[in-house]
């Protein structure tokens, strides 16, 4: 894992990136509006339960 000292890299790595709760596949979502009615499905398992990767980031911070 990279150090968290580069906000630009952080944004690239974590912004609009979600993780499937079912199989932990990373899913990059180009348009966050798509999440409002959840239209995004995991490519690997087809699951719709996603979590933002941001939460992981916050845990690391604390
Ligand atoms: Zn999945």
How would you describe what is shown here?
The chain is of the alpha+beta class. It has a single domain (7-61), classed as Rubrerythrin, domain 2 (Single Sheet). 26% of the residues lie in helices and 16% in strands. A hairpin with a 5-residue loop joins β1 (17-20) and β2 (26-28). 6% of the residues are buried. The model has no long low-confidence stretch (mean pLDDT 76). Zinc ion binds next to loops.
Fold topology:
Blueprint: H1 7-14, E1 17-20, E2 26-28, E3 50-52, H2 54-61
Antiparallel strand pairs: 1-2, 1-3
This protein binds zinc ion.
**SSE pattern, N- to C-terminal:** HEEEH
As a whole number of angstroms, the C-alpha radius of gyration is 12 Å
Unreliable sequence segments = none
Q: Give the structural class.
A: alpha+beta
**Which architecture per CATH?**
Single Sheet
Count of individual beta strands: 3
How many individual helices? 2
